[in-house]
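Limitations

Structures in this collection are predictions, not experimental determinations, and the ligand pose is part of the prediction. Treat each record accordingly. The example that follows, with zinc ion as the small molecule, is included so readers can see exactly what is and is not provided: the inputs are given verbatim, and the output is the predicted complex.
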Amino acid sequence: MRAMVFEAVGKPLRALERPIPSPEQGQLLLRVEACGVCRTDLHLLDGEVEIAEPPRILGHQIVGRILDQNGEEGDRVGVPWLGWTCGECVYCRSGRENLCPRARFTGRDIDGGMAEYTVADERYCFALPEQYPNEQAAPLLCAGLIGYRALRMCGEAGRLGLYGFGAAAHILIQVARHQGREVFAFTRAGDEKAQSFALELGATWAGSSEQAPPEPLEAAIIFAPVGELVPLALKALAPGGTVVCGGIHMSDIPSFPYSCLWEERSLRSVANLTRLDAKEMLELAPAAGVHTKVSRYELGDANRALDDLRNGRFTGAAVIVP
Ligand SMILES: [Zn+2]
Ligand SMILES: [Zn+2]
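Predicted complex:
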């Protein structure tokens, strides 16, 4: 099969021929139909998130078709970032498998979906809502699921800020609007493309991250991997509000006066996802009428997709189709 393989930090992915993997006990063989590209893939390429055992096939938003031993096609499933958990530790036994210390992640510790075939733990293969074509379903699997977990951490906040308006935010705004929340979208200064995209999707206001929103926020989610946004988001909060950091990596957070946190404001991160998050979000997305906007790339163009993501050349999400 053809695969795009990570070999070392700072090097582009390499197009290679690899044997089709064989599923082990508890795994399914999947023919990849589509695989979403995520900012985490850039962190892996740049070494900000470590791949302990290269070479590795990246890609953790996999839409695949199950193949049985005879090569017969079965159901369509989605595979997310969380690819394996121990099932035994205190976190796994208390509904917090996202924090399992032995967790293995798709496209980091396990070969992912930037290939024609992959294998996946059947416990982490999710049925996908039928109304989504393969390419539109792929971004639900990380941008959607981890975004949803971040939204859950915002509680009942009615005025929600989203810092960084990429793949996750473009899905989440649709869920938040469906839930009756007001959304305030913050982008890089001058990114009019992203700001008008946010307004099209129902944002009450869109502006640059340095700007104060017209009303204080009850919660904010930071998707951009930029630590400077943390004090800015805290300053935009009403008393009692929460800032949730939704990414796996962020540059250092500058120091800020205690007054930014005072009055019961809180700051937290969100790590990975649980199967419950997946179940809830994959039901909620079609109910909320979530439509994903995708830019499609051939498998051999994975490096171009990553470069376009890095440089903000598209709105919505990038998806690779082998
Ligand atoms: Zn991701
Ligand atoms: Zn565990």
